[in-house]
């Protein structure tokens, strides 16, 4: 009976984590959309919704520590709980970076824009979101091989980061009016690059969950 109850609690923990992940993914998507479409209302939405993400992380952390203390799980069960505990912290940081992008949107008031760079940032945002979503699906499926494959996609994010950075710096040099905007572009792509890194961390936790080994992907 106790085992069944414990498994139900583990299942709930999985579902709560996935729910937090989908919320964070939506936050990243909204933040990038707000940034490239100059939508300050949408940016405000992202900032306001961050409290919900933080609360979800706190609940997951409390529940995870409670299960470790009360149930004293071993082996795979313990790894499951540790994975949720650690990976939810990575999700929370992704949410923080989405908020930073939203704040950059609000900062840009009538500044000179660089359209080609904004198009590239939009593509980079889509790429990052696809990695986050794929990592969450690999988590639900418990697929370590898929997680390894997804982690390798982060290289394209890093490449995009370098290309957009160069394009932005060139534009700033060519037109001094774009310097203020350019700084926000550079910060935004840095936040996106970090979200990609956290998604890669999530893949590493999936491998740990399945194999018991902490690896760097």
From TrEMBL:
Example of a GO biological process term: phosphate ion transport
Compartment(s) where it occurs, according to its Swiss-Prot or TrEMBL record: Cytoplasm
Predominant cellular place of this UniProt entry's protein: cytoplasm
Cytoplasm recorded as keyword: yes
Any Gene Ontology CC annotation: cytoplasm
Keywords: Cytoplasm, Phosphate transport, Transport
Limits of the PhoU domain: 19-104, 121-206
Domain of life (superkingdom): Bacteria
InterPro entries assigned: PhoU, PhoU-like_sf, PhoU_dom
Summary of the function given for this chain in its UniProt record: Plays a role in the regulation of phosphate uptake.
Subunit structure: Homodimer.
Family, per entry: Belongs to the PhoU family.
Name this protein carries in UniProt: Phosphate-specific transport system accessory protein PhoU
